[in-house]
Amino acid sequence: MEHLRPLAALCILAGIVAAAAATEMVEIEVVEVEARSSYIVHVVPAHAPRLPRRGLLASRAYGCFLREHIPTKLSSPAPTVLYSYSHAATGFAARLTWRQAAHLASSASVLAVVPDTMLELHTTLTPSFLGLSPSSGLLPASNGASDVVIGVIDTGVYPEGRASFAAHPSLPPLPPGRFRGGCVSGPSFNASTLCNNKLVGAKFFHKGHEAARGSALGEDSESPLDTSGHGTHTASTAAGSAAADAGFYGYGRGKAVGMAPGARIAVYKACWEEGCPSSDTLAAFDEAIADGVDVISASLSAGGKAPDFHADIIAVGAFRAVSKGILVSASAGNSGPGEYTAANIAPWFLTVGASTLNRQFRADAVLGNGETFTGTSLYAGEPLGATKMPLVYGGDVGSKICEDGKLNATMVAGKIVLCDPGMFARAVKEQSVKLAGGAGAIFGSIESYGEQVMISANVIPATVVPFAASEKIKKYISAETTPTVTIVFRGTVVSRRTPPSPRMASFSSRGPNFRAPEILKPDVTAPGVDILAAWTGASSPTGLASDTRRAQYNIVSGTSMSCPHVSGVSALLRQARPEWSPAVIKSALMTTAYNVDSAGGVIGDMSTGGASTPFARGSGHINPNRAADPGLVYDAGTEDYIDFLCALGYTAEQVAVFGSSANCSARAGSSVGDHNYPAFSVVFTTSETAAVRQSRVVRNVGGDARVTYRAKVSAPDGVRVTVTPRTLRFSARRRTQKYVVTFAQRTLGRVTKNHTFGSIDWSDRKHLVTSPIAITWPASQVTVAVAEM
Ligand SMILES: *[C@@H]1O[C@H](CO)[C@@H](O)[C@H](O)[C@H]1NC(C)=O
Ligand SMILES: *[C@@H]1O[C@H](CO)[C@@H](O)[C@H](O)[C@H]1NC(C)=O
Ligand SMILES: *[C@@H]1O[C@H](CO)[C@@H](O)[C@H](O)[C@H]1NC(C)=O
Ligand SMILES: *[C@@H]1O[C@H](CO)[C@@H](O)[C@H](O)[C@H]1NC(C)=O
Which GO terms describe its molecular function (predicted)? Predict the structure, then answer.
C-alpha cells in the first residue's frame, strides 16, 4: 500500500469536500456524515502536555490538547484519542475528521499530521550454518545473551505447547532488572500461565486496527495471542529455547533453537489479519522503549517505495529507540529483485536481506521421456508411485493459473496439472486441483525469480519448479500425444556444494537506497529461505480454513525470517560487548561479513543465476563469531543522524519529528556521503563530476591499543580510489583515526553497467575490516552492451 504523504492527502480531500460544501444545506449534511479516520499527530515537544508515564491519564491530557486546538465549529464529531506517544515519538494518534486534521496540521503546536496507514509484514539448521557453537565463539562468550531482552513487534506469540517459549531452567527466574515490561492477559491468553522467564513480555495494540475496521476484531484474538504464525516464527528464531525433535511433517527434522537461546522475549503485537496499522506499530515502539528492551526486531515496513523518513512511522520509532541505545534490526522487504525496492533504509536501522541455507526440500518432476527437473516441496502425505501419470497444462484444461472452480474435472481427474504462477496463493490452487480430482500439481515460478521457487505447506502431491523448467515442461506437453510425469519426493537434502550457499533470494529487496543513495542498503544478509521455526496452533500452516492440520513448526521464507536471525545475533553481541552502541554492533556485523559462497565464488543471486551485488547482499552474510572481534568500528549517534537528516535538506519541523530541536541552517556543510557508515555508496551525477570525497572515522576496539592498519583497495570499474592516509596508527591515546576516500572518474572512463562495485579493506594482519563500494553512474557514461540477453 502506498504511504500517503500527509499534506497531499489532506489537499485532495479538501478539494472534494469544498465542492460539496457549495450550499449551506450541504455543509450541514457534510458535518453530520463527516467520516473520521485515524491520524498520527506529531506535537512540538515544548507544547506537548506533561504526561504520566503511560495509561489513561495520558490520553486525557491529549483530549485537553485537542479541545484547545480545535475550534468549536469543527468540534463535532468529537475526536477520540487512540494513543499518546512519549518515547517513540511526541504526540498522539486519534480519530479525526479531515478538517480537524487539516486544522491541527496548520497549528503552531503541531509538527506534522500523518494518516494512519497499513504497514506490511514482510525458520533448524541455522545456528550451525552461522557457526554458532555452544563450546566456543560468540555463543558461550555472551552466555547466550541471558541478560538481554529482545522486543519483537509482530503478530504476537502462540506459546502454548511450544518448547521455544517454555520456562528456561538455567535462566534466572526474573528478567534483567532494568526491564519494566510484562504480560497482559486476554481471551485465549492467560499471562500467568503462558509468561515465564523466557517470554517476559506480551502486549497488544489494536486501537488503530479496530478503528479502521469500524468494528471489534474478527477472527483475531484481542490479546497477545498469535493467530497467524508469523510472530511466533520470528520470535522463536531470534531467541527461542532449544526444542528437541522439531520439524514440519518430517521435513527439516532436528533440534530447533533461536540465535540467542538465553535472551528474553517481549512480544508487542501490532499486526493483525489486514496488516500493521502505523498507529498501533508506533504504540508498540513507544511501549518497547518504555519497557527498556535492548533489541527491537521489526519484520515489517511501509508498502511500496520507502516513504520519506519523517513520514515513515517505523523510521521515527526506530530513531528514538536507537537514540536510547536500543538496536533496531529490520527486514529489507520482499519486493525484489527490482532496484530501489529496499525498505527500512534509514542509516539507524540494521537492514537485513535474505539468502539461502545449505538445505533444500527436493522434489523432482520426472517426465515420461526421462527428463528430470529439480523442484521443492513440503508435501507430507502418501508419495506417488514410480509409474508415470498423465500430465496436463492448466491452460489446456480451463485455467493457466489453476483458478478455483475453473478447472474441468473431466479433463483433470487422475492427472497431474502444471499451473502458472500468479493471482492466488499456492494453497488455493492446490485446493482447486484437488477439487477437480487432480492427482497432483507442478507449479511454475515467476520469471523474475530466476532459479528461485517459493514453497508452501503442500496439501496434495506437488512440487514447485523454476520458471525455465516450467517453460520446458510446457513444451514437452505440447509436443507429446500422451505426456506423463511423476514426482519423486527426496525430503530434506543438506549439501555444502550443490547448489552453493548462501545465495541471495530473488524476493529480497534491493538497493540503491531510494531516499539517500549515498547510504548503501541493505546492510547485511542472513538466512531467510525455507526457515523452520515455531508456529501458531490457532490456524493451519497453509492459512486455509479447509486445511485442518495444526503444526508446532512451519517452514516459510522472507526477509521477515532473516531479520530475527540478525536480532538474535545482535543480542549476543550486546551482552558480549556491553559498551558497544547500536551503530558499533551494526558496524561489527557489516565489516566482518563474508561475500564468498561454499563453492568459493561470489555469493550468487537466484534471480539472475550470476553473482549478487552489494545492492542485494549489502556488506555480505553475517559471520557472528568474527563480529565479536572486528578490530575497527564505525560509530554514529543521535547527532550524526541529525546531521544526516539536515544534509538531506530536512526542515526544522521535519527534524523535530525525530525529537530534535536542531537548527539545520546552523549545521551547514554536512554531507550525506560523510555520514560515518561502514559502507560506501557514491553517485556521479554528470560525466564531469569532480572527484567525490567521503570521510570516515574508525575506532580501534581490538585487543591491542598499539596497532597499525593498512588500506587495500579493490577499485570499482571506471574509478580511481585514493585512501588518505593509507596507514592508520592507533595507540592508547589515539583510539580513533580519520581517513578520507577520493573517488575520481577515470579519464576516458566509460563503463558498461549502471553500477560498478569494489571494496576497501583495512588490515592489521589479524583483523580484516571490509567495506563495500558501490558507484552509480549517470546514463551518459554507460555504454550499453549490444545484444545483451
Ligand atoms: C490463569 O491461570 C492461573 C494459574 O493457573 C489461574 O489461577 C487463573 O484462574 C487463570 N485465569 C483465567 C482468566 O483463566
Ligand atoms: C470438460 O471437458 C469435457 C471433455 O473434453 C467436455 O465435454 C466438457 O464440455 C467440458 N466441460 C466444461 C464445463 O467446459
Ligand atoms: C538557525 O541558524 C541560523 C544560522 O546560524 C540562524 O541565522 C537562525 O537564526 C537560526 N534559527 C533559529 C530558529 O535558531
Ligand atoms: C540503466 O539506467 C538507465 C537510465 O539511467 C535505464 O534506462 C536502464 O534500464 C538501466 N539499465 C539496467 C540494466 O538497469
Answer: serine-type endopeptidase activity
pLDDT tens digits, residue range 322-361?
999 999 999 999 999 999 999 999 999 999 999 999 888 9
- Contact between 476 and 371 (Cβ < 8 Å): yes
Measure 745 CA to ligand 4 centroid, in angstroms: 19
* 154 is a catalytic site residue: yes
Q: Which residues surround ligand 1 with Cβ inside 6 Å?
A: 190, 192-193
The best mutation among 160, 183, 188, 193 to test binding of ligand 1, ranked by most ligand atoms within 8 Å of the C-beta, falls on 193
Would you place residue 251 in the very low, low, confident or very high pLDDT band (cuts 50, 70, 90)?
confident
Grid cell digits, residue 88: 517513540
Say whether 560 is catalytic.
Answer: yes
Model confidence at 17, pLDDT cuts 50, 70, 90, reads very low
Residue (of 462, 439, 434, 432) closest to 390 by Cα position: 439
Which ligand approaches the C-alpha of residue 788 most closely? 4
Instruction: Using the predicted structure, report yes or no on whether residue 10 has a pLDDT greater than 60.
Output: no
8 A C-beta contact, residue 328 and residue 296: yes
Determine the Cα–Cα distance for residues 416 and 380; give it in Å rounded to an integer: 17
What integer is the mean pLDDT of 69-86? 93
pTM equals 0.91
Q: In the structure, what pLDDT confidence band is assigned to residue 779 with cuts at 50, 70 and 90?
A: confident
How far, in Å, CA of 787 to CA of 789, rounded?
6
Cα separations in angstroms, 9 against 19, 706, 723: 16, 58, 47
Q: Which residues contact 687 (CB under 8 A, 6 or more apart)?
A: 745, 778, 780, 781
Q: Is the peptide bond before 725 cis (omega within 30 degrees of 0)?
A: yes
Nearest alpha carbon, ligand 4 atom 4: 779
Residue type at 766? K
Sketch out the chain's domains with CATH numbers.
2-115 (3.30.70.80), 120-355+502-627 (3.40.50.200), 359-494 (3.50.30.30), 676-788 (2.60.40.2310)
In angstroms, what CA-CA distances link 387 with 86, 390, 488?
A: 66, 10, 11
Pocket of ligand 4 (CB under 6 A): 754, 779
Instruction: Name the helix (H) or strand (E) containing 774.
Output: strand 768-776
